[in-house]
């Protein structure tokens, strides 16, 4: 009999990738309808994938705790294991590679919100109220996606021979190709792991300069790298919520950082991510088609 996963946020990037990977692995997937009773939806489920995230950072301080409590209540009622995508915000500016043992020392409001959220999941697991897997990654990359920092900002002017760097073009930063991350999530769910597992997903670590070089190799024309005009967001921030939220996370685009690949390699021997050239090809495919 197929195992059952309730996927919250199945129309989004992470949730959609997880739904596809679970189906490919033979799971029965139930998309969660936002605003309905999650406890009722989770009845009989083996796993709850929490892919819900307030769009454009809207009202994180209020909505993230609400989502967390709804997921934990549904998990407690159903006995389902919870899979949550973690990010790098809680680590602040500490040197890496970051792993589960890296202290949470956030330097941003959103980092503090995420650290508090993860502590809530950890405490629930310690109290026997839920079994939780946090699968942590850097910036998400979707296959053919048209939403997110890369398609909407970094690669947007590619047709004009440019790409945009939001920080130091030489800073190598952690990225997760979502189909890879989802495959890893499904493989970890197949194992009967501990009540709480914080697993880093190293993915690919590359800079905007690396990206420009690979685009040049594939297309024959290396794009120029332009710097993002943060001053525009500062002007708009009094009137535009997203501008305020992005400004707070500016430090991450200048900070070289990576996640430790060793824990996942030990847990999933033989697991391999999609080669970097194929990831870049997937990133630019929609723009080349257009």
Short précis:
This protein has 290 residues and is an alpha/beta fold. The protein is 41% helix and 17% strand. It has helices at residues 13-24, 38-41, 60-78, 109-126, 149-154, 178-189, 208-219, 230-236, 241-248, 262-267, 276-289; strands at residues 4-8, 28-32, 47-50, 81-86, 131-136, 139-141, 162-165, 173-177, 196-200, 204-206, 224-227.
Q: Could you walk me through the main structural features you see in this protein, from its secondary elements to its overall organization?
A:
Helix 1 packs across helix 6 (about 180-190). This protein has helices at about 15-25, 40, 60-80, 110-125, 150-155, 180-190, 210-220, 230-235, 240-250, 260-265, 275-290, and strands at about 5-10, 30, 45-50, 80-85, 130-135, 140, 160-165, 175, 195-200, 205, 225. It is α/β, with parallel strands linked by helices. Strand 4, helix 4 (about 110-125) and strand 5 (about 130-135) form a beta-alpha-beta unit. The strands form three sheets. The chain has a six-stranded parallel beta sheet with strand order 2-1-3-4-5-9, sandwiched between helices. The chain has a three-stranded mixed beta sheet with strand order 6-8-10. The protein contains eleven helices and eleven strands.
